[in-house]
Amino acid sequence: MAHIERVDLNLLGPLAALLAERHVSHAAEVAGMSQPAMSRALQRLRDTFGDELLVRTPTGYQLTPRAERIQRQLGATLPRLETLFAPERFDPADAAEAFRIAGTDYASAFVPGLFQRVFRDSPRSTLHFGRWHDRVFDDIERGLVDLLFYATTKPVPGLRTEHLFDDPFVCVMSRDHPLADRSRLALDDYLESTHVIVATVGGRQTAIDDLLVQLRTPRRAGLTVPYHSLAPLAVPGTRLIATLPHRIAAEHASDPALRTLPAPQEIPPLRYHMTWHPRLDDDPAQRWLRDTVRGVLAEAGMPGPRGRRLPQHRRDRCLVVLRHRGDQQHHRRR
Asked: Domains in the chain, start-ordered, CATH in brackets?
């Protein structure tokens, strides 16, 4: 880089104009410069190359042999530089991107539509959908995952997180469960029951268990499974309760062996997000992928981040109720 570092690259435009026009005034018009400014540029170019470049003759300026060689090289170099510095564009129809996404199994509620849309609009691109695991955020940092889908109440610092939609929790139980005739489960009955835990992080169903542990009202786990799809299959003929997002439970609504009830009102909805690394903020292909996700969710009727939420005073009231009941449960168990 020693030769480039001593050169003012702003001289490339005047150089190309001078070599093409072989006339200082004409080159100044082409480059949008004044004639004195172009004359100064020519002198700087002569000093840079150690060559006269343009030599006056009775018939006008002529190129030196060095200038002729430079002109041939510029013909190949300048178009590449123009491409290098031009705004980057992404055309999905012609692109052949390799998208790497990951998520919990709950993403099955919408990722089939995402797959179909990507292959419809960008048929030469490829997709790899990886499973959720405890070190998936390290994969994002290392560039092994482009986009992650998961539920959280605590976005990871240093990463971009966008709230996609909410999904209320429901309780799935056996048709002959003692609580199956209720219209809705009360929190006390819920906490006294035995549960199927869908282990998302560290063996816990974090969207529910983080809140209950914080309030000293942990659930009693009878069965732990790695996937939402397994939980409802385990409850027929047992006293287990599986707490699932509504969209997952709806897939089993026609099963006569199951009964579905709204979860206790103190349990907030599942908040589903997508997360990516800030280095992908302005990448055209990644921006298209994220926009495609938003479009698929909008067509599926999934409420976005502007969906209704409880007002702050009502959310505060729910927390007070939970803490009060948590204290009651704590003392009762002691």
From this structure: 2-85 (1.10.10.10), 98-165+271-300 (3.40.190.10), 169-268+310-333 (3.40.190.10)
